[in-house]
């Protein structure tokens, strides 16, 4: 049987070179007492939650859900979560001011820039106008900053759109003379807005690609009359007007009166088989 040494047989408090340490009542309560709202730890957690709500675009009512509250309680029992109103009226507005000041500092050194704009509608059909700026900083790094998505209740005319854009640029201290180009979709009101201010306009590649894919899909779903199995005698006649889905294919008109041709009988026989035309197609004389 092994014998413990004399030092090991003594209680911990009696070991040489050690002193007894007992947690005081105050220290015990401090370990479970909630953080003061002015404490650094409370501010750090609150700021992190506000950034989570804003950065991931999470609904503010998330802080009222039991699952989220239980998560915070598990991570730190001393933290007391502020109310939903606090985040919507205090924490997130303060975060916006901090972020805006940072972006304004970046834009002060920008001489030339490009922008992107578009009109949006929310799920409740409320209209908005967005504006994003692109620039190269002093380190030759390409930066993009979404400046704002503002409520736009006016009619979406070219004049109103260009006024909204000019107000947005002025709101961020940007001179429109430093704008080298602006990217928009192909909407007529957007084109007119850029023409009013004589801004160099670039077409949105993503929008153009979407239109091309959609058009190709429509052609595959509804082939053109020339792609149908029509009698050759019918397609060879230059004095016919073929229309598909309201978009006519106009061919040169024939001389009047049309000269006699042995192909007229073939044409009448071919026209008698037009029951195979898809819905939306039409056949008419020009």
What labels describe this entry?
single chain; about 290 residues; alpha/beta; three-stranded antiparallel beta sheet; elongated
Give a verbal description of the structure:
- The chain has 286 residues and is α/β, with parallel strands linked by helices.
- The protein is 41% helix and 18% strand.
- The protein has ten helices and eight strands.
- Strands 3-2-1-4-5 form a five-stranded mixed β-sheet. It has a three-stranded antiparallel β-sheet with strand order 7-6-8, with no helix packed on it.
- The chain is elongated.
Write a brief caption for the model.
The protein has ten helices and eight strands. It is an alpha/beta fold and 286 residues long.
Beta-sheet strand percentage? 15-25%
Average pLDDT, rounded to a whole number, is 78
Q: Please write the string of helix (H) and strand (E) elements.
A: HHHHHEEEHEHEHHEEHE
Shape call: elongated
Chart the SSEs and their pairings:
Blueprint: H1 6-9, H2 25-32, H3 40-55, H4 66-75, H5 84-107, E1 113-121, E2 127-136, E3 142-151, H6 158-171, E4 179-184, H7 188-197, E5 201-203, H8 205-221, H9 232-235, E6 240-244, E7 247-249, H10 263-271, E8 281-285
Parallel strand pairs: 1-4, 4-5
Antiparallel strand pairs: 1-2, 2-3, 6-7, 6-8
Helix pairs in contact: 3-5, 6-7
């Amino acid at each position: 049987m092994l014998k413990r040494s004399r030092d090991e047989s003594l209680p911990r408090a009696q070991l040489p070179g050690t002193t007894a340490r007992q947690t005081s009542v105050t220290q015990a309560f401090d370990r479970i007492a909630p953080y003061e709202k002015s404490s650094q730890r409370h501010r750090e957690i609150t700021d992190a939650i506000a950034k989570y709500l804003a950065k991931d675009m999470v609904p503010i009512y998330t802080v009222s859900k039991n699952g989220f509250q239980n998560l915070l309680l598990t991570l730190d029992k001393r933290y007391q979560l502020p109310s939903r109103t606090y985040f919507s009226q205090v924490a997130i507005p303060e975060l916006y001011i901090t972020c805006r000041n940072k972006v304004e500092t970046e834009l002060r050194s920008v001489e030339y820039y490009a922008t992107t704009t578009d009109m949006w509608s929310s799920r409740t059909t409320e209209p908005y106008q967005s504006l994003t700026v692109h620039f190269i900083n002093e380190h030759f790094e390409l930066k993009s900053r979404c400046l704002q998505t503002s409520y736009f209740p006016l009619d979406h005319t070219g004049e109103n759109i260009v006024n909204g854009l000019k107000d947005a640029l002025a709101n961020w201290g940007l001179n429109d003379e430093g704008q080298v180009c602006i990217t928009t979709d192909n909407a007529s009101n957007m084109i007119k807005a850029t023409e009013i201010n004589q801004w160099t306009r670039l077409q949105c590649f993503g929008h153009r690609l979407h239109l091309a894919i959609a058009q190709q899909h429509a052609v595959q779903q509804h082939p053109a009359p020339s792609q149908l199995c029509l009698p050759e005698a019918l397609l060879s006649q230059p004095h016919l007007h073929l229309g598909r889905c309201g978009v006519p294919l106009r061919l040169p008109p024939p001389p009047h009166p049309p000269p006699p041709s042995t192909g007229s009988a073939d044409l009448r026989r071919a026209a008698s088989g037009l029951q195979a035309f898809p819905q939306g197609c039409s056949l008419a004389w020009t």
